[in-house]
Structures are given as structure tokens and as C-alpha cells.
Write a structure and sequence with these properties.
Blueprint lengths: L24 E6 L3 H12 L4 E5 L14 E4 L7 H20 L5 E2 L3 E5 L4 H13 L4 E4 H7 L10 E5 L3 E4 H14 L3 E4 L2 E3 L5 E4 L2 E10 L5 H4 L1 H4 L4 E10 L15 E4 L6 E4 L7 E5 L17 H14 L8 E11 L6 E4 L6 E5 L9 H14 L22
Parallel strand pairs: 1-2, 1-12, 2-9, 5-14, 12-19
Antiparallel strand pairs: 3-8, 4-8, 5-7, 6-7, 10-11, 11-12, 13-16, 13-17, 14-15, 15-16, 18-19
Length: about 400
């Protein structure tokens, strides 16, 4: 079968769409976000024939991997598995960034701050010591001296990770897919649906065959497999805003302000410095209401805009009265407890399920892709916490 159309990525690199042989592909990956694209890349590196498919394009505006920036950090409380995954993934992101015309990683550091000592901070520090990773503990006076643009009056201490920072999300995924295609992988723009036939997926209604089919559909996973995941992946509305920093003031530039997360007062707020002139980014890490990635209204609500405004002006006094420059509504696809889903389909032998990014997954894309590739090629299952069996119908996130 021959695929006649060719798809050009936003980076200007065209995917080589020569179609497949009668035997089909070694693997078809559905979904060109961070999880799917890295899975396709790891399979390609193992000399497998791989077709990567997306219905709207890599890291598109409706995808969970879309948008400007994502935090990469290694502080995960007692969850050392995510600390190790973040570190391994960062090496891959940095290599990709070094080959990109524009930076994909900004090493601005990440600062978490707390009003008192809590288990999350204590456990993060212990894990970093055990793994011999740098994690600086700063008291209130040190915080005020190093980051004067932040109001630390109710903060006891902070944890600073100098080696981490911000990933340019959309650009990074587009670069990854472009390089995947340039190095022998195949990418097409098409709508994929499961087929009733084994080893088959329908692409725009046409059957395509593969030894393995990996569905990495982000917020669409519950729609693709409603019987299995409809009540186990929770898609929620998440709102982000950008604020113009004061004119002529470099205190909000990446060299002066790190990525940050505020663990005070019950709600978790986080954000980034003024990356590449886009503005100061702020978001509230509370799960919003149920959201449909196809039909959901992506306009910021007045209520949430007011919450973000009030927090920004309290914690970053120089932003008082500064205008919002942009709003974005995306979505999380949460598992019941925040752990990823990396597993086989329970009844379809050649089908694999990949998702449950749960708001913290982007940074782990390289390692998640490697783990899925190991499962597909060697039958090597990842840690049991990533199994379908651990995903329940009660949403209670434990991973932060």
C-alpha cells in the first residue's frame, strides 16, 4: 500500500511517507505527544520500522503536550523512581536541545518553597542525598537575598535544583518528531481508530497493519477505550496565564528568576520566568472540572483569572497591576493516583496503552518512551505502579 500525501512539520522538515510493505510495520504509535513521540523514537533506535500518527499534529493546541513550557525537576518527595526518571530524561532532552536551532531546555533552576517543614520536602532532600544529586536547602534570609522579586514573608525555607528548569514543550516535540522522520521513522497526519481485526488500526478509515500498536492518545485515551479507561483516566480542565513583567526590569528573566512552585496555603501554584519574551507564566495545580478535548471551551474563566491575579500580586509584588498577555486552557489526563499507565491492553495481544501523564508527565517523556519500547520489544514490564491493574475509578492523586 502506498500513502500518497506528505506531511510537513512546523519545523520545516518533511516526513518521509513512502508507505509500508505487505507485512506492515513493526510498530504503529498513535499520538505524537511527548509519550508517543519518544516511544516511536526509541523503537526507531532499535532498528524497527515505525509509523507515528497524530490527528492534528505534534504537540498541537488541543494536546496535553502543547503550549509553551513545562517544568523539569527531580524533587518528588519519597518517589525516588520519578527522581531517577527525571534525571535520565533530562539527559535526552539536553541532547535534543543541543541539536536544535532554537533552545529546547532553559537551565534556569527550579525553586520549591514552603511555610514549614513537611514530609514532601524532607523526603525529597533524603532521596537527593541518597542519589548524590544537588539540592540546595535555603533558609528565609537566603531566599530573600537570592530572589528579591519574591515575597517570602510567610516562607520558612526553599529547595533549589540548579540543574533543572524549563522545557519548551511544543517546540521540543516538533523537533523530536522531525528528527524521528529525518532518521528513518515515518509520520503522518491521520485519525486513528482501533480495528476489530488483530494487528490492525484504521487510519482515516483505511486498515494499516503492525506487529504492535501503541495508543498514546493523552486525553483521548478514555474515548478510544471507554470500557477500559473511561472511568480510570480523568481528563480535567487546567488554566494558565502569562503576565507582562515590568518594562525594563530583568528580575523576571531566566537568569534571575527560576521556575518555581509555592507549596503554601493548601493550593499549589507554579510558574516560570519570562522565557523568550513570552511573559511570566503562572498556573494553579488544582484539578479542574471534567473537560472534553474535542469540544471544551478553552477560554479562561473570570474566577480563575482573578485567583491567578491575586496570587501573583501577593507573591510577586512588582507584578501588581501588570497586564495579562495570554491565557491558555489545556488539560491533564490524570490516573487515579498520578502514576503513569504503561501496559498491555488486557485482551488485545498486540495493543499497548500509554498515558496518564497526570500533569507531571511531560518531563519524563524520554524514559516513559524507553520503558514502553522495552515492554513492546522484550516483554519487560516496568514497575508495577505503571500497570493498568493499579488504576482505579477513584481519583486521589498521590504523586506531586
Amino acid at each position: 500500500m502506498r500513502i500518497s500525501r506528505r506531511t510537513a512539520l512546523a519545523t520545516g522538515v518533511s516526513a518521509a511517507l513512502t508507505g509500508c510493505s505487505r507485512q506492515g510495520y513493526d510498530a504503529i504509535v498513535v499520538g505524537a505527544g511527548a509519550f508517543g513521540a519518544w516511544t516511536a523514537e526509541h523503537l526507531r533506535r532499535r532498528s524497527k520500522s515505525v509509523l507515528l500518527v497524530d490527528q492534528m499534529g505534534p504537540a498541537n493546541a488541543r494536546a496535553s503536550s502543547g503550549g509553551e513550557s513545562r517544568m523539569t525537576r527531580s524533587a518528588y518527595g519519597r518517589d525516588a523512581i520519578y527522581t531517577q526518571m527525571a534525571l535520565a530524561s533530562l539527559r535526552e532532552w539536553k541532547r535534543l536541545s543541543e541539536r536544535s536551532a532554537l533552545p529546547l531546555f532553559h537551565q534556569c533552576g527550579v525553586l520549591f518553597f514552603f511555610e514549614q517543614m513537611v514530609d514532601y520536602a524532607r523526603d525529597s532532600f533524603a532521596v537527593h542525598q541518597e542519589l548524590d544529586l544537588p539540592l540546595q536547602q535555603l533558609d528565609n534570609a537566603q531566599l530573600k537575598s537570592r530572589f528579591p522579586q519574591i515575597n517570602f514573608d510567610d516562607v520558612e525555607f526553599g529547595l533549589f535544583e540548579p540543574d533543572f528548569g524549563a522545557l519548551m514543550a511544543r517546540r521540543a516535540v516538533e523537533e523530536l518528531v522531525a528528527r524521528f522522520a529525518a532518521n528513518g521513522g515515518e509520520y503522518i497526519l491521520a485519525r486513528a481508530e482501533p480495528s476489530a481485526q488483530p494487528h490492525e488500526v484504521l487510519l482515516d478509515g483505511r486498515p494499516e497493519r503492525a506487529d504492535a500498536i501503541i495508543y498514546a492518545c493523552g486525553p483521548w485515551l478514555p474515548k478510544v477505550f471507554p470500557e477500559i479507561l473511561g472511568e480510570r483516566i480523568f481528563v480535567t480542565r487546567q488554566e494558565v496565564a502569562f503576565i507582562a513583567p515590568p518594562d525594563g526590569d530583568d528580575n523576571f528573566s531566566p537568569g534571575r528568576l527560576p521556575g518555581w512552585a509555592d507549596f503554601n496555603g493548601g493550593d499549589l501554584y507554579y510558574g516560570f520566568p519570562n522565557l523568550e519574551g513570552r511573559g511570566f507564566k503562572i498556573a494553579r495545580d488544582a484539578h479542574g472540572g471534567h473537560f472534553d478535548p474535542d469540544t471544551g471551551d478553552r477560554r479562561m474563566s473570570e474566577e480563575d483569572a482573578s485567583l491567578l491575579r491575586a496570587f501573583a500580586e501577593r507573591r510577586f509584588p512588582a507584578l501588581a497591576g501588570r497586564p495579562f498577555t495570554e491565557f491558555r486552557v489545556c488539560q491533564y489526563e490524570n490516573s487515579s493516583n498520578g502514576d503513569f499507565l504503561i501496559d498491555r491492553h488486557p485482551t488485545l495481544a498486540n495493543v499497548f496503552l500509554l498515558g496518564g501523564g497526570s500533569g507531571h508527565g511531560f518531563k519524563h517523556g524520554p524514559e516513559v518512551g524507553r520503558l514502553m519500547a522495552e515492554l513492546v520489544l522484550a516483554g519487560r514490564a516496568p514497575d508495577p505502579r505503571f500497570s493498568l491493574a493499579t488504576k482505579t475509578t477513584a481519583q486521589a492523586r498521590e504523586v506531586l
